[in-house]
From TrEMBL:
Domain of life: Bacteria
DUF4010 domain boundaries: 191-399
Keyword Membrane tagged: yes
Keywords carried by this UniProt record: Membrane, Transmembrane, Transmembrane helix
Organism: Vogesella amnigena
Transmembrane stretches, start-end: 18-34, 46-63, 69-91, 103-136, 148-170, 186-207, 213-233, 245-268, 274-294, 315-335, 373-397, 409-428
Protein name: MgtC/SapB family protein
Amino acid sequence: MQWDLSAWLHLAGTPYESLPSYLSSLGIGLLIGVERERKQHTLAGIRTFPLVCMLGTLLTMLVPSLGSAWLPAAGLLAVAAMGILPATNRAPDEPHEPRTTTVIALLVAYSLGVMIALGNIELAVALGVLTTGLLYLKPELSSFTHKLLRYDLLALLQFATLTFIILPVLPNHGFGPYAAFNPHRIWLLVVLIVGVGLAGYLAVKILGEKVGAPLLGFMGGLVSTTATSLVYAREAARNPSSQQLAARVILLANMVLFLRLQVLTMAISPAATLPMLGIMLPGMALGVLTIFISQRRSQQQENAPELELKNPAQLNIALGFAALFAVVMLCSAWLKDIFGNSGLYIMALVSGINDVDAIALTSLEMFGQQQVALQPLLVTVTIAVLVNTAFKFSLIFSIAGRELAMRCLPTLAMAMVGMLGGLALSVLL
């Protein structure tokens, strides 16, 4: 239900019927103007921006009365001409805000005023907030761009190209044996899983070593639980004093795996959201509870080693995901045709050793296409997580030794117990 300020104030039919539009323009202009006013010797500030925004609304509303559709365009040119005004007096060594940013902000404010006059008030307000955010967060955005390496930018460009240019033109129907190769669906799954990993990678890149173990574990879990376990197992092997930190990061990353699988389920097969939650939530809850109990007496602070993770948006990694998904989908369809649901379980045992996402996404995709029932889906995902967890535990034990492995064992074991308990309950129900 849309809130109509004009109707609430009974302004319809009065000379003040358009007052809410001008108030909206005033508010947007003030919001942007307050941010600009904080800059030294800026071209426009807390008075100019509201006036410019209301000018856009005023000239647009005058078009029907004056019969001139060029009024808004003329106003836009007049605002743009403000960019050639001379700068205010200031000392030569005094810092100043680049004029181009303020001029563009003025043009945006004017255009938002035009949008309000055309009736797009909600969108104009949202864009005004986003504009103010971009202006205010300049230091953070600049710092972020300087932390990205050249190959990070190249990988982001590749990912954007393959997502927004290639994905829409891929055929969305099955090819080959069992019609298992659907290029559009396969790449859509790639975009989803790489996008989740990319979010974690960028967060680690931005925050660096300033974050603590909980956030490092969370972000590392978004990127790759196996990679995170490997990085911190090696760190613990090199530096025995970091055992406690390594255990916290590894365990938290492995708890994030449950959350990641639940989010993927919601995105791919919404019908399986609640049943999947029934096995993911007990596993994550028992694991987190075990972490809390084992760590509550320890207050020691340690320096966090940097997470040396690969950018998951790199082209070769994305193509590797696509090839892996295609192979897993074909093998899963073939094994299911020969062995029934047992074929999926065999595939989960094999592919789960190195990666959970491929078999989990494949089984979710098959469930969405009604090629597999709910219970085999839950069993397949559970098997993959169990096998993957056992593999990571053996990795930790072989690299870092018995001490770190024993620190991780209770949490990993309780998480698996919780997951199996949730699966057993879902079968009984």
